[in-house]
Amino acid sequence: xxxxxxxxxxxxxxxxxxxxxxxxxxxxxxxxxxxxxxxxxxxxxxxxxxxxxxxxxxxxxxxxxxxxxxxxxxxxxxxxxxxxxxxxxxxxxxxxxxxxxxxxxxxxxxxxxxxxxxxxxxxxxxxxxxxxxxxxxxxxxxxxxxxxxxxxxxxxxxxxxxxxxxxxxxxxxxxxxxxxxxxxxxxxxxxxxxxxxxxxxxxxxxxxxxxxxxxxxxxxxxxxxxxxxxxxxxxxxxxxxxxxxxxxxxxxxxx
Length: 255
Known about the structure:
Elements: E1 5-10, H1 17-25, E2 30-34, H2 38-42, H3 53-57, H4 72-77, E3 86-90, H5 99-104, E4 109-114, H6 117-133, H7 146-166, E5 172-176, H8 185-193, H9 199-216, H10 225-234, H11 237-254
Parallel strand pairs: 1-3, 1-4, 2-3, 4-5
Helix pairs in contact: 1-9, 6-7, 7-11
């Protein structure tokens, strides 16, 4: 499909970008990478030339991403890639600097995942603890802790608020992680993207909801009281509230 549009998923790390990517991937009309070109974006070299059929599905270069090999998803995508209405990538780092995306892609659609900072910081700490137990040069950095979470989350929220305000708001789809299974998300996403809801997407969404419910009880806050106080005292509340208002308005309009 020569007139395919570009669709990207971003948000502060540990905000549900991977779950959103999996939901989108379940739609047969969407070709969605999972940090397929994370390094290219950080290097400011990502542009539409990376989203041709063979480049996206077949050609792998070590400079493309921090991932060390191609996921089987890309080979499975090969036969239907050209018929997809959307092609894109999930890259959390985009929200830290939208300039490359907005300069190099014409009217991209952007799904921004929102999650409250305390849960994000706790998830950062969980990754740090896991990295300390099983050190790896390719794993989560042990110094990327709750302090780093605050810095990245604040920057992500501020940048997104500024980007939404400076462009057509329809370019952004704001989704709260905490509400991802509270409503019929497939219908909202497909309506915003001009697609019919696919049976495959509905089926995956139901299964993901069931899995989420099963593990919800095992989640716990890992931050100490001191760490939680640090997070709460450094959150950019004004920017977060402003973004929440935009998300609420968008949801109300979609409903």
